[in-house]
Amino acid sequence: MPDHAGAIYLFSRTAAAPASENMSVEEVLVARARSGDEDAFNEIYRSFAPMVHGILLSRVPYDDAKDLAQEVFLSAFKNIGSVRDPRAIGGWLARIARNRAVEHYRSAKPGDELPAEVRGRDERKSEAVEVLDAIRRLPEAYRETLVLRLVEGMTGNEIADRTGLTPESVRVNLHRGMEMLRKQLGISGAGK
Amino acid sequence: MKNDYLWDKTGTDPEIERLEGLLAEFRYSVDPAAASNVIEFPGRVRSDLKPWIFSIAACIAVAASALGLWSFYLTGGDAAASDVAQVQTETEEVVLPVIPLAEPETKTKVTAVNPRSPTAARPQKASLRSRSGRAVQQRIKEAHAPSALTKEERFAYNQLMLALSITSSNLQTVRRSIDGNEISDTEKR
């Protein structure tokens, strides 16, 4: 289980909302959120916020990712009634996050990538920024999956569950993405 | 085992573990203090208050309707003495000019004076006429009852309309407050 303080992972079935025999946990929460239950939506937020944040982080500066994640969920809350399949709530949120990142990117200043809090810091922090930038230069499918894995600490199965991708697709993205990242960073892959 | 670590963190891979350590500072974190309210919904009515708002509005509507109905039955049944006296007075004023009963009584008196006529029957006829006159008077009263009831009905109708207008305005107020919260959320977006 990834170490996110306070996060409750829906798909581990440890969420507080009880599921009926015919409804999954996600369906129950979405149904409650549709009726205006903010507590239910907050629970959805806690479960999917790492994924949304990771998708945004793969596209926008670090300083903006958390604020944009809030905007994504506020937009999702207002439009929760338009979700066709509550079980695919993760894929729906992922699409909103990607769209929001595109909007932000169009309005963002060019070259504003280096987070202010790490600018001028020690070498380790600069290396972290360099690695993140290298991930961002990867193809979209690879960089999203790698950010969710390496930054947000999600496993392959968790990435598949939340984003709606198949486990096979996630595995391919992780493997190929990691190879490309090694080449960009000049890592020899001595661990093989 | 390297691929397994990348997939599900089984085994070890120093290279990937190092990258994870470097990138950990960019990881999403939830502030534990704000875990109970991770999303600020500015200007929204709390979901736990919405049932109370509708309950209060419903109680006001029911009370207003009950007041109107009570007033209706009050005027239609056990009316106040003053209201009854007023209605009776109005009824008498309406009825009296219409009653043409003085003439029959006069005629009765005239016929009763004649000794040659079968006066024994005449007084009876006179009494019958007065009794019939009272019956006519009663019928006229009943005929004019609709005019008295109309005033009552009008009063009850006004009470009912008042109750319904109170109910309607209360429901509109609640709806406006809810719509106002949604509009403010949209504008802020």
The helix/strand order of chain A is: HHHHHHHH
Q: Using CB atoms under 8 Å apart, which protein chain pair has the greatest interface?
A: A-B, 52 and 37 residues
SSE string of chain B, helices as H and strands as E: HHHHHH
Q: How many extended strands of chain A?
A: 0
What are the SSEs and their pairings?
The complex is a heterodimer of chains A (192) and B (189).
Chain A: H1 25-34, H2 38-57, H3 62-78, H4 89-107, H5 123-136, H6 140-151, H7 156-163, H8 167-185
Chain B: H1 2-8, H2 14-23, H3 50-76, H4 81-95, H5 102-113, H6 121-188
Helix pairs in contact in B: 3-6, 4-6, 5-6
Task: Please explain how this structure is put together.
- The complex is a heterodimer of chains A (192) and B (189).
- With 192 residues, chain A is mainly alpha-helical.
- Chain A is globular.
- The two termini of chain A are 25 Å apart.
- In chain A, helix 1 (25-34) crosses helix 2, helix 2 (38-57) packs across helix 4 (89-107) and helix 6 packs across helix 8.
- In chain A, 41% of the residues are buried.
- Chain A has eight helices and no strands.
- Mean pLDDT of chain A is 83; it is low at 1-17.
- With 189 residues, chain B is mainly α.
- Chain B is 74% helix and 0% strand.
- In chain B, 6% of the residues are buried.
- The interface between A and B is large, with 52 and 37 residues.
